[in-house]
């Protein structure tokens, strides 16, 4: 019998939208049906860090975190080396890691999948020693995160939240300017003028930006070169069509570790959706099979 603690972000959009009437009860019934003991905490965003620190010292062997990618990232920074298994309930807008673990986004379906999920070991990325589970972004992506920060505390309905997400990307598209980065990998240095840089843990592909391999042991860096607005728009088209890897305005490097340097001592960077002011040069590396997480079982007809 597993001893499980679930920490749910009480301000997650899924709850604010009124889509879930009894989040704690739904969890308790699903896990109890499989013989597991589960405690549930509905935490305000500002108290989630304290709840996670308490969870690290607890005798629970599995911690379920309910929130978006940023909340999951915070959980990993606190629990990543604790030896505890991490389960993820996707309650945010994007939910990259939950999606790659095949956890459905609808709450009751997600709970059912998580209760039946199996533990697997996955890679983490490190930036200057700090863990991230999916992506880091500079330039355009940092502009998107800054726009989202201004909207974070608004209680928006689901369509309003998605409209705000789209608006943040539109503003970033217009406001992102050129910056110079030097990528050092394998003893070689590549100086590039860019308007966006995206660093990923393992390889994303396809129109839905999925990772089919969460323990590939590498990080990829994608540099979108500084080009005209028209060519940026064409790049956006290729992103939607899944053809972005063939776009000549993106340069991609893959390695176990590399450095990014620039002209500023610090740069804004988004790490799994959260905004940080990070020192340069930035060292990125992969931490192979660093954490155990719950992955949904394949569907019977898969």
What does the model show?
There is one protein chain. The chain is built from nine helices and 15 strands. The chain has 302 residues and is of the alpha+beta class. The chain has two domains: 3-116, Rossmann fold; 131-288, Tumour Suppressor Smad4. The longest helix is centred in the middle third of the chain and has 18 residues, at 158-175. It is elongated and about 55 Å long. It starts with a strand and ends in a 7-residue tail after the last strand.
Task: Give a short overview.
The protein has 302 residues and is of the alpha+beta class. The protein has helices spanning 13-16, 23-32, 48-57, 69-79, 96-100, 107-115, 140-151, 158-175, 229-241, and strands at residues 3-9, 37-43, 62-67, 85-90, 118-127, 130-132, 135-139, 179-185, 188-201, 219-225, 250-255, 257-261, 266-271, 274-279, 282-295. Helices cover 30% and strands 36% of the residues.
């Amino acid at each position: 019998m597993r001893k499980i603690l679930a920490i749910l972000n009480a301000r997650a959009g899924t709850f604010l939208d009124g889509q879930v009437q009894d989040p704690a009860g739904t969890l308790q019934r699903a896990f109890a049906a499989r013989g597991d003991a589960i405690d549930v905490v509905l935490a305000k965003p500002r108290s989630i860090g304290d709840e996670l620190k308490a969870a690290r010292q607890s005798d629970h062997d599995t911690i379920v975190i309910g929130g978006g990618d940023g909340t999951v990232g915070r959980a990993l920074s606190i629990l990543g080396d604790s030896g505890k298994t991490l389960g993820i309930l996707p309650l945010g807008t994007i939910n990259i890691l939950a999606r790659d673990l095949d956890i459905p986004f609808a709450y009751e379906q997600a709970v059912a999948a998580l209760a039946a999920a199996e533990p697997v070991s996955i890679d983490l990325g490190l930036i200057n020693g700090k863990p991230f589970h999916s992506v880091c972004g500079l330039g355009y992506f940092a502009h998107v995160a800054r726009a989202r920060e201004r909207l974070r505390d608004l209680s928006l309905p689901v369509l309003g939240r998605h409209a705000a997400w789209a608006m943040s990307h539109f503003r970033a598209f217009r406001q992102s300017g050129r910056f110079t980065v030097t990528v050092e990998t394998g003893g070689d240095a590549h100086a590039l003028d860019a308007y966006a840089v995206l660093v990923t843990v393992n390889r994303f592909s396809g129109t839905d930006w999925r990772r089919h391999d969460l323990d590939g042991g590498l990080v990829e860096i994608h540099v979108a070169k500084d080009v005209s607005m028209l060519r940026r728009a064409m790049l956006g088209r290729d992103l939607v069509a899944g053809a972005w890897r063939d776009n000549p305005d993106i340069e991609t490097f893959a390695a176990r570790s590399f450095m990014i340097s620039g002209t500023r001592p610090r740069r804004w960077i988004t790490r799994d959706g959260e905004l940080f002011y990070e020192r340069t040069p930035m060292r990125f590396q992969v931490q192979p099979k660093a954490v155990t997480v719950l992955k949904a079982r394949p569907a019977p007809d898969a």
